[in-house]
Design goal:
Helix content: 25-40%
Largest sheet: 8 strands, mixed
Distance between the termini: 31 Å
CATH class: Alpha Beta
Number of domains: 1
CATH architecture: 4-Layer Sandwich
Shape: globular
CATH superfamily: Ribonuclease Z/Hydroxyacylglutathione hydrolase-like
Strand order of the largest sheet: 1-4-5-6-7-8-9-10
Bound molecules: zinc ion
Amino acid sequence: MRIIALMLTLVLGACAPATEDVVQNDVVTQEVVRTGDPYARGYTDEDFPRIQELAEGVYSYEQLRPAGEEKFTTVSMFVVTSEGVLVADGQGNVIETQRMIDEIAKITDQPITHVIVCSDHGDHTAGNSAFPEAITVWAHPTSAEVLERNANQMNSDSEAAPVLVPNALVEETEVLSLGGKEIQLRFLGRAHTGGDLSVYLPEEKILFMSEAYLNRIFPAMRSAYPSEWVAMIEKAQAMDVDMYVPGHGFVESPQILKEELETYRQALVQVIEEAKRLHALGLNAEEAIEQAQFGDLETWSLRSSQGSRAIQRVFLELNGELPGSGQEN
Ligand SMILES: [Zn+2]
């Protein structure tokens, strides 16, 4: 585990070009390889979890997660205040979420009081039963419904960890004040799950976007709303934000994260355009998956598992067959 103070980078990031080594005020900003692949970035498994202090009391938490042959990071964010700790997104199982809870306890004596379900998918919620019982769990109604359904289906399966069902709902915006810190829970539109929440810290100008922002990870669309997702990112881009925090992929300097959010928006557009092109040729989804060419995105993490799902999902949208709520996982 290593803790890195990013606050200096927050200041420098705005003026330092990221693609070359820059010496500025005796600080060297190393070139960053823009990839979701931890090994191409020079990391080893021992470098994780990776915790960075993004602003006073605000931390990102990145842990490696295997997907087939590949590994990539799943990102949570936590905010430490004098009235408790707010955690945005858990990890993928009880062991990993407990590990995060233990790491938080090394940083503060404050208890975890709030958990925000920004993505209802299992890799961000399946370990939530590790959180203390007396907490407020916020979610968008769509995600709350998904988790309630999962909880009901669990009864017969005693081996799986219990599902933590949300007990507070965010329709559009909820403004929390915790130890004098303003924390906004925002629904900016349907994106990766349909119940996508973001956590906005207006003073620090940080926006945790969860899975609506996948940094150099191939657009994962199994329960997405493809064109609404693009609009949601544009809404986030129009906000007063210095640092956009992704739900998968690396947490970089504010400047790189801003650039990569635009790269990601363009990646979504590219995938949608490719699916549209193939759809217009009259191909069915299976044929389209065979013929799809994703250009630069061919080398992105999870391309092999997510390319076909993305085509299928855009085809559903083009055929007017997207479900009304983000029900499938
Ligand atoms: Zn997901």
